[in-house]
Specification:
Blueprint: H1 2-24, E1 26-28, E2 39-41, H2 55-65, E3 77-87, E4 93-100, H3 104-116, E5 123-125, E6 128-141
Parallel strand pairs: 2-6
Antiparallel strand pairs: 1-2, 3-4, 3-6, 5-6
Length: 143
């Protein structure tokens, strides 16, 4: 009984926190766009941004464009890089940066792959197209 009550309390707290973050946690645009009044939604949107063709197409794109020939490792799974970027209202990717990296080689490769990506379908909030920060994990595996 105590575990169930504790779990329900945690779920309610997370729900309240997420709800509060959706409404209140926004960022001003980057330095070059300070004149604009648009905001960047950080957490969730009614309609999330989407890579053209969906998640499977994005995975294929990443795998097809990944170059690991110079990586000195015998493991199959080498690690994961978390890369962050803003999907602008026109679907272009901006402000690309490493959130959590592995090494300079992997980090540069993740940035290179994201810079090759086509424009995404932007997110929407209250019927309006919005700028949104997105964090993408990229798994590096030997082929």
């Amino acid at each position: 009984m105590y575990k169930t009550t504790k779990l329900l309390f945690i779920l309610l707290c997370l729900t309240a926190l997420t709800s509060h973050m959706v409404h209140s946690q926004t960022l001003k645009n980057s330095e070059e766009n300070k004149q604009s009044d648009e905001k960047i939604f950080l957490v969730v949107a009614e309609q999330e941004p989407e890579f053209p063709g969906g998640r499977m197409a994005m995975t294929k794109f990443i795998n097809r464009n990944m170059r690991l020939s110079k990586v000195p490792s015998t493991k199959n799974h080498l690690g994961r890089v978390f890369i962050s970027f803003i999907i602008d209202t026109d679907g272009s990717l901006q402000d690309i940066s490493i959130k959590r990296g592995l090494s300079s080689e992997y980090d540069h490769e993740a940035i290179r792959i994201v810079k090759l990506m086509p424009n995404w379908k932007p997110g929407r909030q209250s019927g309006r197209v919005i700028r949104m920060r997105y964090t993408l994990p990229i798994d590096f595996r030997k082929k």
